[in-house]
Protein: N-formylglutamate amidohydrolase
Organism: Sphingobacterium yanglingense
Amino acid sequence: MSLQVNYHIHTIDSPFWSFALHDGHLIDGDLLPYLLLSEKQRLREEDPYTALIAELPVNQFVVGTSRFQLDLNRPVEQSVYLHPEQAWGLEVWKTNFPQTLIDQLYKKHQYIYRLIEQHIQSSIQKYGFFVVLDIHSYNANRESPTAVVDEDANPQINLGTHYNDPKWRVLTDSFIHAIASQTLYGLPIDIRENVRFKGGYLTQFLNTRFGDKGCVFSIEFRKDFMNEWTGEPEVKRIAACKQLLINSVQSLKEYFAYEG
């Protein structure tokens, strides 16, 4: 059997990329006999609707396979959740999960990262630089569906920039200003850096290889645009998140036009 990892790449004439690595919910049928989790359990920790937010006027890389099959924002040796501590205390796979299938998934991870590397190299060759918007969402209400979110500890947008080269500090400040100068759901935007998340494997991988040529903004939206317990979306809020980033991409264009 050959396991499938679903992903979609859409390229346009642009040095900018949007990624939605955790939007997916699909599990390969050959893996289902070994899976312990229900769809509801998986959805709780996935990032549904981030693919919609990532539909920006830039290059796009969207993954349709669930992170519970293969987490492409973790190093290859951690990309299959074999231990509860890798998966919020959840037992994901039965004990008879074959090593041959695990090895197949690891190879898929390596192949996809070679593909990502090639695409970013192409952007650098054509434009001299790149910027990735790595779009995620996060749960801020883990106690109960009725608990009040601690907004001091959970910014509306957590911007992961920890692994970026310091040379991109001015670009980062410009991008943050472009977001903070707008509103979201009719309210001022609380965007902070590296409070809950610093950036995952994608940003570490790209910064290690190309950090002097571009950077990754890991954008974690608090799941205010959905019910994080049921997965029910608020369509207008999803559209608002997308529009926020569409507007902010313009600041990236202006920065590099000025630099050029």
